[in-house]
Amino acid sequence: MSSTRLEITRPDDWHLHLRDGAALGSVVADTARQFGRAIVMPNLKPPVATLAQAREYRARILAALPVGTRFQPLMTLYLTEATTPDEIARAKASGIVHAVKYYPAGATTNSQAGVRDLANVQGVLEAMEQHGLPLLMHGEVTDPAVDIFDREQVFIDRQLLPLRERFPKLRMVLEHITTRAAVEFVRAAPTHVGATITAHHLLLNRNAIFEGGIRPHHYCLPVLKRETHRTALVEAATSGDTHFFLGTDSAPHAQEAKEAACGCAGIYTAHAAIELYAEAFEQAGRLDRLEAFAGFHGPDFYGLPRNTDSIVLERKPWTVPDALPFGASQCVPFRAGQSVAWSIARC
Ligand SMILES: NC(=O)N[C@@H](CC(=O)O)C(=O)O
Ligand SMILES: [Zn+2]
Ligand SMILES: [Zn+2]
């Protein structure tokens, strides 16, 4: 399908990092401009681990929004080995917490407070299964003996398969999937198991990390994979299969934290999110399936109503700025200084 103008139901972002403080003020408008809602990741320092902390963080997000926006942050709790089943019940009853995030300790940015062993959170997982609160997973093992490109596949074998067996009714999302193995696992699972897919994993393979030299702004976790995996992700996202939905994993870091001897993981895409997904769907010849991936499958999975308003995209290239404000610093966005093929004509 070729098209120059596309009206779609307002999309939602089911995996987003908004950060906190002055940085939050710099980035939240980018998301609020195009998305109706977003699942907000809890990996702050300290983590958003309790309902009280989620309420406070939500209030800070709402206070940072430009006046007049109707964007809704959907909060998550950071699972720690101190999380209690009672907290899960309270979180579910609050109506503001929509999921609990599992970071294997040490797997990614601010995951030190995460879970070392799932055996230590069995009571909490039971409570989540019972209350229907989804478990969102950063699906990578942290075993240093496992090759970094294999950590997602090994997570599926060592942790996800046993978890599915032990908690067959637990709602779960394998976040930011990057491999053919993850696509196949999720595709074969029941509908209460889903996966988010980022724009950058649809558009880039691992060559992008080393193109002409080391490219810190293409470094994220899970790390970009081979072309065969990218192709599997594009097939999944554009297939119409309801297991798969949009989650940008937009994860800004200050320029100096990325352009460093030991640079942080994370790619900022919120400034051009739906436009980048439109590029990926257009390349696959499946622009007609963007709307469901971006606006239907996510709310259906989370048991929330679909958005009722729309946005309009047009095939009109624009150039991404070299840098964007980020608190007291700046952030180098995805495609900095380069062009994006689609723009938002009405939001
Ligand atoms: N994706 C990333 O590379 N980084 C995320 C953490 C995460 O989602 O794993 C971040 O918070 O910076
Ligand atoms: Zn992650
Ligand atoms: Zn993330």
From TrEMBL:
- Enzyme Commission numbers on file: 3.5.2.3
List the catalytic residues. Answer: D249
Q: Enumerate the residues binding Zn(2+) 1.
A: H15, H17, K101, D249
Q: Which residues bind Zn(2+) 2?
A: K101, H138, H176
Question: How does this protein assemble?
Answer: Homodimer.
NCBIfam families, A to Z: pyrC_dimer (TIGR00856)
Its recorded name reads Dihydroorotase
Q: Which organism is it from?
A: Rhodanobacter lycopersici
